[in-house]
Design brief:
4 copies of one chain form a homotetramer. With 429 residues, chain A is an alpha/beta fold. The first copy, chain A, is built from 15 helices and 12 strands. A 7-stranded parallel beta sheet of chain A has the order 3-5-6-8-10-11-12. In chain A, helix 4 crosses helix 5, helix 5 runs parallel beside helix 6 and helix 9 crosses helix 10. Chains in contact: A-B, A-C, A-D, B-C, B-D, C-D. At the A-D interface, loops of A face loops of D.
């Protein structure tokens, strides 16, 4: 039996105020979709099955190199974080898994498993960290980790990844995500070819220990923390890595990790076509890796990504990319942001399901560019909120995520228990 | 025996005015390099061997969709163009080959060969054109060529490429460069996966007819003429193409075809490392595919590219990427721009040869980022003009490219023969 | 009485098929908006008043420097163009004005006026052209026009602008839009300060002749056709121009003329705040000045621009920026693109009208970032199509723009009368 | 008398090894410049007068939101920092001032003055900090400072700036630099117009207290730490601020604070032309505000900026923009980076002094784009190191900055005294 952090009676009361309107809206939307030959209930069913993982580090307040401004009631450890994740899962009914970060979330694996099980939460991909130095660490990653010029440093980074796999095995994870900050800040600082050779050799050592039913995800990023070059800088390099490693290796796409103006949905299509799309870190951005809430800046782009996923689902067998949020919440309550982001990712999926695939294909085949793009626009501008809300309602979640969460007063309650955190940084400019 | 367009006596007279200073400068530079353990003559010897191809279309005045402002004495046909290229080759002694564009340069292959031989010019890669409709063409490429949804259109584009190979065989070319404008202007206009399948199938048909001693170069470009998606949009897709086609297929890097901020020298390194760097279209740009003169905007970037090439030369066997200029000259005399661009490409090569490779490697190995980047900077800020000029002088070229060309009065002479061209465009906005 | 190009009975018949569904949808949307305290009819009334000008050049098929692929039945002259614009106005009921381009649209002003009046069309801003050379023009604009180093060239450009004003006076225009391509392709080619002085002096000469009830709009653009620097490169320079010229001078914002990642809605806010927002050239873009259909790439950005306009409307008196489409239609029927773009601009306006301004302000005041952004998102994700369609229906337009236009067979009809145009370009690379 | 941190005898010994070569190189360069009509000694004299301020925070090791990897012997407080700055000044003889950051450098002003005087150092602009919360601060700047919706917060930020002025008065500073992080992370989070009104009102309050012989510099930045909008986002807004405040208000240009592809030298020209160029924060960047060493990524851009400054110097009276380095040293010894950056800024200045201004102007006037850009290129590719080194030598600095610094063993010495700092961050992602 699942423990509930938010008293279900609060959710029920909040839902009760909204349920009649929801039924009216759902019915009215159903009629409009019916005219387009779409059965609203089957869309709802697919939406209800949709899951996106919540990153443990996402429930803390983020910051920049200039400052971090703490929020109220910040989680003190991974167990507090799991409780925050449980709130998100309870209200959204769309985030049944948590993704851990080692060493930040290091704890007795059995205790971790127990803590999550209490809320019926599972564990998504394990995330290793060789982009910062853990206390007491022998070798520093200042000049690189898996791609370091120093064999001892590389070995330490390999061992750390193997440890993440070990922890993951105990708690039921089935994947390892590897993102490194390795690169360089100056032309000439590193030799690109040597550095990449080191990286590949290290990753092969990690891959060799990957259980058969696991996947390894490598994540590319154009820049930051390295500001001249980055070892895994784009999907081209990422694709090469996945090919070199083997069939359990896949590419992870973080929406904020690309050069300006890049067509991300096309990268998604290419990786899917060549069997190497591992999954996503969802978020949104305007400038760099801004890590804003998914859909907050360019919701149409998010839809276009899901348009590719729905297309790929029908096109390729055994296609099941991982979905994870990866955001930094500097000015909002992280739980609120994560709930609404999970919902916005679901929204994009729901809208993509509404695309008239047959009409789209015909328009494409006859070079009717306008009709083709209108097929996407028609689906996109459909307000699918009633579908999302109904899916939540039927699973015990909240019709109104924000209203219900605020009504429950969760943040104020934990702020009483969890001590205020000192402000931050100043100096890392 | 080579015919000379510019009377050699003019070159000699111009050189005579400058030769004493050149000898003094060469000697003085030689001493400074000697202190760094570098033998100036061996650098000069390498520079003298360097060749970069001139594109036939580069000697005409370029333009934009808004207007084209003609220049004086523009070449009327490929034979005029070959003469212009001969001037560039005579003065720079660094551009002994011409790259043709079909159908723009279509003519009796034997006449082409003869015209070029007269000036001891050879032919570099053939360039096919399926990004515009040739007069009388059956199918339009408005909605794509090699990747079109229409089989007839694809076949026409394949046939055109095969024709380019045929012409090339006669005139002694050994490579085919394929750049297409295929893509889309609207989300949904094309299906990315289907379109790429069509492209790959078409290219396989072309590849099947490629002679054994030829190479095929595919060129990626982020955007333009397509403004939402482009089939070969980046090096990632380009690499996949080269892998799918086979061992005679290589990727061509045009310096202006990337997303803002992208680290191009790193792409060069990756392609070299995985055996797929075919060569370059050199030019420079500030915004998009501006096609400005090589080194005009960011000369250090050009140097960093050559730094990779010199590194790769020592690292990989059988490494010989093709060098070609690809520029659009809207406000300069194209011959002047091409001469100086050839020289600036050579300059970057010469500077890269000056890098203390041993010192650089040591600095990299010991994570001495500052010393490493200074090794590059020291080489880069060396004024190698005396080396370039001496290499030219010894081969019969001009010490002062611009001064000698202007003194020869070539442009004025051809302007008398070649009729003025009507201004242009207006309306293609 | 207004002449109709499309037989009204066709529109009626098409509308008849859709009117019942529209009423149902409008009613249902009205109920949902009513719950949010919004009266749908008052929104509809505002939407019905909204007008966006159509550019005469927009009804022709556009192209790039690589090629232009003609469409069927392209307009032969300005009178054909006016007919095409009349079709757009008839079906959308949102584009009652046409914006002319001189010299492309040069004709007897009285004939122009008559031709437009026949369809109850008016004339929006006049557009001068000094970015290309007109046939027979004395001085070339190859190296600049209003900012040329040559006084004769500057004067010619000034005279051309004065001529545009003269024509405009006759046909009832009230504004002159000045966009120039002046700039440079190479560092050093021009002196920035001198060039800008020339520009300002020239503009002051034009401004001196501007009628009292006219406005002059200057348009900034980052690059293209100049590829190193552009005289009016951004809103900062544009603002200085408007300040230097005087109170009839305003800045025009083209959504595609900015650097990557720039926050355009913020520029809109700044210009409005300092009394210098003249108006818009609406279009959309992914890379540069792609001139794609408004809302085709990033519809949320278009909404955010209108969110500023609705805010400014309430904040500043005498605020009435000009709305104009400025697009290039390379792969679609230009009439279809312009109709849907006019509708998408209207859509963004309608959505912006739905924002809960009071709630937004409260959230902003209390730093409730999430509630604030949700206020925008809620308005944006409302499908306002029933409002737009109802506004059209009530004014005699088409419920379904694309369906009705295609049913009317206009393109096929004009294709019979207007001869096919030869394909284009090839060579301006 | 000036105290010396590095024993002058070490410098002398190091110089002794290099002085003969330097004299030879200086003489040889002098001859080559003489041919171009340039007197090397007068260039050296100008270079010797050149000064660039060092930021106190620059001598500490920087970091990113992901991690900070400490260096050896990091300064513990402002007095250690002043000693590090004294080393830079001693060896480069080009950095006689230090720029302080309050509250990071807060200390008894008289002690500060004394500490600096000991090394003959002066104080450049004061830098206020309202982008992070100081310990014990009443109001948080989480949602803004000078532009906050809360009057108390704005007042606190105003008071902080006034305090900076007070400290500055005591220590002999003559300027206040104001950079804030205020902005928003989400569309709608703030009202752009209201926020900017608040900002202007606050700045007017600060400006009112600015001493008559002071300047106030405002600094624009596109993004970071705010990721959707920033109050002072570009030079357009910055220019408006300077105009609104008054004649003691000027714009500060940080080379890394612009949108991708922006032509920064043109902004420099515009601000100079309209009397509002206050000065610079020099650094270099490839992606965003990377804060890399000046000239490390695009040295030609740095030269082009100085080309504008030399042009402006001759054009406008009373033109004396402030020069300051502002960099973040994550992987290098900060002293080494700052020394070489100061030298690279000087280098760009020296190269700009070599431009043939008369020839450039003639080429510009006659639209000889190629000759114009070659005038810049010729100056730029001159290796002016002998001029810089000779200027240093004659003032008691080091011919070889890096070699001498390393020979002196300064870092090892302070590492013995200054305790190692704990690694950092982890979690602010």
């Amino acid at each position: 039996m699942t423990d509930h952090i938010i008293d279900p009676s609060i959710i029920e009361a909040e839902n009760a105020d909204r349920v009649d309107d929801l039924h009216a809206d759902y019915e009215s939307l159903g009629e409009r979709l019916d005219r387009r030959g779409i059965d609203i209930d089957s869309i709802k069913a697919k939406v209800a099955e949709f899951n996106v993982a919540v990153p443990s580090w996402g429930v803390g307040t983020g910051g920049t190199r200039f400052a971090r401004f703490p929020g109220l009631g910040e989680p003190r450890d991974i167990f507090d974080k799991i409780e925050d994740c449980a709130v998100i899962a309870q209200l959204t009914q769309a985030t049944s898994t948590v993704s851990l970060h080692i060493p930040w979330d290091k704890a007795d694996p059995n205790r971790l498993k127990q803590a999550a099980s209490r809320f019926s939460l599972g564990f998504d991909a394990m995330n290793s960290n060789t982009f910062s130095d853990a206390r007491g660490q022998l070798q520093s990653y200042k000049f690189g980790s898996l791609s370091s010029t120093d064999a001892g440093t590389r070995n330490q980074a390999i061992e750390h990844n193997l440890e993440c796999i070990e922890i993951g095995k105990t708690i039921g994870s089935k994947a390892l995500t590897v993102w490194i900050g390795d690169g360089s800040n100056f032309p000439g600082q590193t030799n690109f070819a040597t550095q990449f050779e080191h990286y590949l050799d290290s990753m092969k050592a990690v891959y060799a220990e990957l259980p058969d039913d696991w996947r390894i995800y490598t994540e590319h990023k154009m820049y930051e923390p390295a500001f001249y070059s980055t070892v895994v800088q784009d999907w081209g390099t990422n694709y090469i890595i996945a090919k070199e490693l083997g069939e359990k290796a896949f590419c992870l796409v973080d929406l904020g990790h690309h050069a300006p103006n890049v067509n991300i949905e096309m990268i998604v299509s290419r990786l899917a076509q060549f069997g190497k799309l591992g999954g996503f870190h969802f978020n949104d951005s305007k400038y760099g890796d801004d890590d804003l809430d998914a859909g907050a800046i360019d919701p149409y782009r998010l839809f276009l990504v899901f348009n590719e996923l729905v297309d790929a689902e029908a096109r390729y067998k055994d296609f099941h990319p991982a979905h994870m949020l990866d955001q930094s919440h500097n000015v909002t309550d992280p739980i609120e942001s994560l709930m609404l982001s999970a919902s916005d990712v679901q929204r994009a999926y729901a809208q993509a399901l509404l695309v008239d695939r047959k009409g789209l294909k015909d328009a494409q085949q006859s070079n009717d560019a306008l009709a083709a793009t209108q097929a996407l626009r028609l689906a996109y501008r459909t307000d699918v909120e009633p579908i999302l809300a109904m899916a939540r309602l039927e699973k015990g979640g909240a019709i109104d995520l924000l209203g219900t969460y605020r009504a429950a007063g969760y943040r104020a309650k934990v702020a009483e228990i969890r001590p205020a955190v000192e402000g931050g940084s100043g100096g890392i400019v």
